[in-house]
Amino acid sequence: MRFVAVSALAGLVAAGGAVGAAGPWEGGRRVAERDRAAAAGADRAAERPEAGRGGPGHPAAPPVLVGAGERGAARAGAPDGLAEALGPLLKDAALGDRHSAAVYDAATGERLYGSDEGTAYTPASTVKLATAAAALSALGPDHRVDTTVVADGDGGIVLVGGGDPTLTARDGAGAGPQRPASLRELARSTARALKARGKDRVAVGYDASRYAGPAVHPIGPNENIAPVSALMVDEGRLDDSDRGPAERSTDPVADAAGKFAGLLRDEGVGVEGDVAARRAGDRAERLAAVSSPTVAALVERTLTNSDNDIAEALARQTALASGQEASFEGAAGAVTGRLDGLGLSGAKVADGSGLDRADQVSADLLARLLVRAADPRRPELRPVLTGLPVAGFTGTLRGRYGDEAAGRGLVRAKTGTLTGVNTLAGTVVDAEGRVVTFAFMASGTGDADAAQRALDRLAAKVADCGCRS
């Protein structure tokens, strides 16, 4: 789903990633929050009982779209700004022995705060921000990935994977821009094309050669990611889930091809012999095709749910668009190259998902990447922002910020978690109505839950502070 209402609550850009050239900011503050903040005092005064607009037991409702500070006591600017506000929180032992922080003004690109911000740390899943930005830069937000069926020269057909892990074999795939491509629809279209040619039996092959190199992630077989393949259905999941850990197929290519053959039979087309790997020729004739959701929609799903399978697919699609081999190594090089092109040099990218501890990224780079995504001159990067989970409401932040009311609904951030590693990078509307970007990284953590709460307190403090450095 797209987060229309929640995006408004968070005070960021319009849902769907569309932002006008002028952007929603003026003078470093979001216009909606600025205007409401300016009117808030007058509105509250007019609604006091003594002004004749209320009465005992009937207080006026608070405004909705305001900076965090408007909901509580006024925040005076501290002498040392964010340094005074965040410094004590960074000393929390839950953050381990190594941690860093960076905070930027999204409108001006000014760094508001830094603490060891230039040191590279293992980012865990916050590296998906880099993968997303690279894919959007290389492919554009409207690009789609096709899964096709072609007629080969021997009278058979070949199912050709394009690299869409969200291709589904399930019924009831839903509707809207994030509706996944349907394997059943592909089989139905293929059957119609074959019957139009007078064929009701056919040999079926499959081609997953678009990707290269090892399919299994360096962490090994894992419930958090399937073998990375150009042909799979439902992310190789062996249950009915569409997010989070799940038992995965060890051979998603063969499983997808087998399901396609079964669906062809359901459509009245017999399958001759075994379904086997077969390379589609360059001159093979396309019979049918289905398309993935747009890259923008895939990016949003990746970031909201921290989807490792889609992240690795986006990295490989970036490699293909960059003329590099669609392998772990080629994808890492392509993502790094695209970051360099965005002026974000210095990252060491090993994979697209952040499961590899060899990834090394600084808090400064992550915070600046989010500034790039907010730049009105780079509207193609906007899904990096619209896909961020909303504190207390969506995705991997749905169950967080229960104790940090100042950040709930205002913080939008990508989470990152590995054993001993906890990170958080995103955007927040501060008490002055400014949109700021931040990245907090911690290594050597011993209690993941405590570390997450410490990170949430940091982001909530940025929301509640509004103090200038």
Automatic annotation (TrEMBL):
* Keyword Hydrolase assigned: yes
First-level EC class = hydrolase
Q: Report the record's Gene Ontology biological process terms.
A: peptidoglycan metabolic process; proteolysis
- Protein family per UniProt: Belongs to the peptidase S13 family.
Query: What name does this protein carry?
Result: D-alanyl-D-alanine carboxypeptidase/D-alanyl-D-alanine-endopeptidase (Penicillin-binding protein 4)
As given in the record, the signal peptide range reads 1-21
Q: This protein's superkingdom?
A: Bacteria
Q: Where in this protein does the record put region Disordered?
A: 24-72
The catalytic activity of this protein is classed by the Enzyme Commission as 3.4.16.4, 3.4.21.-
Biased composition of type Basic and acidic residues is found at: 27-37
Question: Mind listing the GO molecular function terms for this protein?
Answer: serine-type D-Ala-D-Ala carboxypeptidase activity
Q: Does the keyword field hold Protease?
A: yes
Upper lineage:
Bacteria, Bacillati, Actinomycetota, Actinomycetes, Kitasatosporales
Keywords carried by this UniProt record: Carboxypeptidase, Hydrolase, Protease, Signal
